[in-house]
Structure formats: structure tokens, C-alpha cells
Design a protein that fits this description.
single chain; mainly alpha; elongated; transmembrane helix; transmembrane; membrane
């Protein structure tokens, strides 16, 4: 599986995902009926989220083994931030549905469900990560002996 560790590649993944979602919403409303488009758009949205969750790695995470199924981020703070943004997205979806825009009603209901589910998963991951004590990396002090081998002649 692809592992993304550098910030610039994470930003590129997010930008490519937003481009795919924008192209999807621009192309399909004219060719697919609204209920199918809403379901397809939300499934693509969730696929991009879970693709990023399974691929992104933090600096302190091992690269090769897969993450635990419940783990969404490498640190608790990141999960709390993303979860909070998703709660704002839920509020936005609820406002757009409540204002009576009937053309986005199904997409709005599916968006509320998807974003609420993602927010719950991010918050739950952050709470579990917060309970786990951080790994302490031993740091060398001045009193430590040198860590090299002598040269043999």
C-alpha cells in the first residue's frame, strides 16, 4: 500500500482529491439522476477520506505495518482538529437542508450522515490516542560514551 509521509505529498493528495470531487460534481449532474449522483458523490468522498487515512503516516509512525483499524491520525490533536472541521461541515449541511433547497436534500442528508460518521471516527481515534502514553525516544546526554567503533589498523 502507498504510504505518504511528506507534507507536500499529503497536500498534493488532498488537492487531487478536491479536483476529482469538483470534476465529478461538474460532470455528473447533467448525465445522472440526482439520487444516484448524491450517493455516488458521497461514496467518492468517503473513499478519498479513507484512502488518505490509510495512506498518510506521521513522523513517529512505522511505515510498513498497517495502522490499527480505529486509528485515523498519528497524533490526537490532528484528529480533534479534523473532527471539529467535520462537525462544522455537518452544521453547514444541516443549514442547507433546513433552508429548503430541495435539489440538495438527499445529498444533504447523506452528507450529514457521512460527515457525522467521519467526525465520530476522528474523535474516537483521538481519544484512544490520547489515552496511549507517547513513546519516549531516549536522547543522548553529554555523559553517554561515544557510539562509534574504534578504527582497526
Amino acid at each position: 500500500m502507498l504510504r505518504i509521509r511528506k507534507t507536500r505529498w499529503k497536500v498534493a493528495y488532498i488537492a487531487a482529491g478536491l479536483t476529482v470531487l469538483a470534476l465529478n460534481s461538474a460532470a455528473f449532474p447533467h448525465t445522472v439522476t440526482n439520487p444516484i449522483f448524491a450517493v455516488e458523490g458521497i461514496l467518492l468522498y468517503l473513499l478519498l477520506y479513507f484512502g488518505g487515512v490509510r495512506s498518510f503516516r506521521g513522523a513517529d509512525e512505522p511505515v510498513e505495518p498497517p495502522r490499527a483499524w480505529w486509528r485515523m491520525t498519528s497524533r490526537p490533536r490532528a484528529g480533534f482538529v479534523v473532527g471539529s472541521l467535520l462537525v462544522l461541515s455537518v452544521a453547514n449541511w444541516m443549514f442547507s437542508v433546513a433552508t429548503g433547497a430541495t435539489d440538495v436534500a438527499l445529498a444533504g442528508v447523506l452528507g450529514v450522515i457521512a460527515d457525522a460518521l467521519l467526525a465520530f471516527l476522528y474523535f474516537r481515534s483521538s481519544v484512544r490516542l490520547h489515552r496511549v502514553p507517547p513513546r519516549i525516544v531516549p536522547q543522548r546526554t553529554v555523559q553517554d560514551p561515544p557510539q562509534w567503533k574504534p578504527i582497526r589498523r
